[in-house]
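Project outcomes to date are best conveyed with an example. Our students and postdoctoral researchers have been running inverse folding experiments weekly, and each run begins with a structure described purely in tokens. The record below, which covers 190 residues, was selected by the lab manager from last quarter's runs and is presented without edits.
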């Protein structure tokens, strides 16, 4: 009986959310560009001198509580072109404030992340022309944690295409403390 009631509540809430358009699902792709870093190397170079773009993409969940306030959690996979070309799972949870109603919004919130990089290597000692011996090293997965905050603006066009510009600060990453980055993204809500 509990399962039936839970299923009914889920179906009813899903239909209510879809009718009111307070819950939208979408996708986004973007990049983050480093601006500054607190890490200094021995020869005078900073972390940003060895740091490339951070490309990311993933799912967006836009939840509107009122006409002017909402929440936008995201689940992103981010490729970092840095020392070991790591891959991160990023989860920003942005508070979405719409001062003029729909369209333009101001966003701010925390961002959590962890590495999901899995190293693949080939063992040629056991090489056979019919069998490939690839081994996967999970030692890098979930070993580095990224805690940060982001603030920015977002514009959602009437045809549900959106673009956002964010300034993010990572308090702690796998290599250093204090990386400031500028993020630009483009996406679509359904």
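After processing, the design step wrote out the following sequence:
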């Amino acid at each position: 009986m509990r399962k039936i009631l839970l299923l009914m509540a889920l179906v009813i809430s899903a239909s209510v959310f879809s009718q009111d358009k307070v819950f939208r699902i979408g996708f986004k792709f973007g990049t983050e560009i480093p601006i500054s870093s607190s890490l200094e190397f021995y020869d005078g170079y900073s972390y940003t001198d060895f740091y490339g773009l951070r490309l990311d993409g993933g799912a967006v969940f836009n939840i509107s509580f009122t006409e002017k306030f909402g929440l936008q959690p995201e689940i992103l996979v981010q490729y970092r072109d840095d020392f070991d070309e790591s891959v991160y799972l990023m989860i920003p949870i942005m508070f979405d404030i719409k001062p003029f109603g729909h369209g333009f919004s101001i966003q701010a919130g925390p961002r959590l992340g962890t590495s999901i990089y899995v190293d693949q290597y080939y063992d040629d000692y056991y090489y056979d022309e019919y069998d490939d011996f690839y081994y996967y090293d999970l030692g890098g997965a979930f070993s580095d944690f990224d805690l940060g905050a982001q603030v920015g603006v977002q514009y959602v066009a009437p045809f549900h295409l959106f673009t956002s510009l964010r300034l993010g600060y990572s308090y702690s990453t796998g290599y250093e403390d204090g990386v400031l980055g500028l993020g630009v993204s483009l996406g679509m809500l359904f």
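The radius of gyration is 21 Å. The chain has one helix and ten strands. The training component of this project remains on track.
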